[in-house]
Amino acid sequence: MTTDPYYNRKEVSNSDLTKMMKYFMCAEDIANLEEIFRFGSLVDAMITTPHLVDHIKLQVNGEQFNQFEWKDAKKILNTFRNDPDCKNIMNISEGQKAFTKKNFQIEYADIQFILDARCLYDGYINAASFGWDLKTTKATTQQQFEDSCMLFDYDRSRAWYMDISGSEKDMIIGVSKVNQKIFKIPIDKNHPFYISGKDKYQSLAFQHTY
């Protein structure tokens, strides 16, 4: 959906680890995951890179969406903009902030190895060294959203991003597609999401490397 040269870089990304995970998933689960990512990318573009969005043709960088997808994404966009905390975070953030880390040291099963890694935040507050990621969800409560984050391995992405960027804090912001509620999960390196996410990325990075 993007011509950004970031996606042509050779460093390993969280998306590369997800591709590795797909080898162990059934076709239906893969299709559901790709549908979620597609819609999430549309919402991300509307919020963090609006200059890439064509509201007349219903396209993002030439990728076509239907009117139902567009309508749902616009609802989430408006919900995000109308939330005072989200509006403030967006105003002080750099959208689509990339980080790379050469010779990223990882340990799995007492085996130490290195790889070149990269990540791309939806938004990053440079003054606070604090990043965040936006997720759409069918969840209608905070607990449901947290459970879905674990199910879709969003904990892995947050640990991966934090360790590559060197950030001590992170946040997942969720917007419900069902009731337009906003959920926030602040994360530090003592948070269960960081701990479980690091275990997940270490395992997949090992499989990717070996």
Give a description of the structure.
Strands 4-5-6-7-8 form a 5-stranded mixed sheet, sandwiched between helices. A 3-stranded antiparallel sheet has the order 1-2-3. It has helices spanning 14-22, 27-48, 67-82, 84-91, 142-151, 154-165, 192-209; strands at 53-54, 59-60, 63-64, 94-108, 111-125, 130-137, 169-176, 182-188. The longest helix is centred in the N-terminal third of the chain and has 22 residues, at 27-48. The mean pLDDT is 90. β7 (169-176) and β8 (182-188) form a beta hairpin. 45% of the residues lie in helices and 28% in strands. By secondary structure, the chain is α+β, with helices and mostly antiparallel strands.
Short descriptors:
210 residues, alpha+beta, five-stranded mixed beta sheet, three-stranded antiparallel beta sheet, 45% helix
